[in-house]
Amino acid sequence: MKFVNEFRDAKIAQQLAQEIASLVTQPWTIMEICGGQTHAIVKYGIDELLPKNITLIHGPGCPVCVTPIERIDRAIAIASQPDVVLCSFGDMLRVPGSAIDLLAVKATGADIRIVYSPLDCLKIAQQNPDKQVVFFAVGFETTAPATAMAIYQAKQLDLKNFSMLVSHVLVPPAMEAILSSSDCRIQGFLAAGHVCTVMGYNEYIPIAQKYHVPIVVTGFEPIDVLQGIHLCIQQLESDKAEVENQYTRSVRREGNIKAMELIGEVFKVVPQQWRGIGEIAESGLGLQDNYAAFDAYQRFPLPLISHEVDRKRNTESDLCISGLILQGIKKPHECSAFGTICTPEHPLGAPMVSSEGACAAYYRYRKHDAMPEIHVKSIHVKS
């Protein structure tokens, strides 16, 4: 824990908070893109350490949360077919579709398996040649290389019984969509460090220049987040709009070149629906023509499902404000259903399910009091 605890040191946190307070001369609103950063902020009470005129907004940086309902329904429809093994990361099983979730389908006897890597699915396909094995591929740029490698290897192995239901999304277009909105009040961003470990941060430079917003690539520990906020406030107070890298221990400007080459080999950029937000141009990944044989959409030409037949039905509960939460317009505790009707055991919306969802973070750490007093000492010892 030596190299983790140094990023949770209470004295350093206090010092950074004091330095931030000494810089601020006016109100500023900063969005952290990543759900992992949101959990760190809520868990360690980082927002409570900051001056009151700094507002942190939680962004749509939870890939499970923004996976469209249509894609959930399609996964459910595929898993319900005979002789199909649907593989998925665990947090996708509880995400509500338009009527039920994957866990409910599994309970009826569907062969749905939790995997920790897309590459695990190749072994399952090899071991079950009489079944169709489908991987539900969800994630940002962070997980895209592993998905691409699984498809690349499947082609090399000439696996005829393996395909993917792809729902990868890209961060920079989502940031542009937020900034271009007439309701936008974001003045600076904390960018997700693990995303930039793969993609680098060159793509953020034109965004920072076009919208005149500082973007700071930031890690996930309390000291990381406070340092990211410190760098962002320095820029805001100096009227600068540049891309800075707080997460230098993991991120290079050019990113992981080999990983990006693999993504480019297997995927192409496509429009993508974001749950609770709508379609964002050039914000998703689809399979290149050379790999179309592994596309579950083509492998399973199912009849029209709920999203396509009845768009009105294919929405969250009327009580759920997850769309507003994912856009940073509302916070979880502002939802009337939070912690009562909507819980992780009985979620109304995706942000209450995922380990990176904002609602799940508030429920776990602040369900009894939306904004409790948080002591800085807890940064070092709180689990």
UniProtKB/TrEMBL annotation:
The keyword Iron applies. The keyword Chaperone does not apply. Signal peptide: none annotated. One of its GO terms (biological process) is protein maturation. One of its GO terms (molecular function) is iron ion binding. Keywords: Iron, Metal-binding. Pfam families: HypD (PF01924). PANTHER family: HYDROGENASE MATURATION FACTOR HYPD, HYDROGENASE PROTEIN ASSEMBLY PROTEIN HYPD. Belongs to the HypD family. This is Hydrogenase formation protein HypD. It comes from Tumidithrix elongata BACA0141. The gene is hypD.
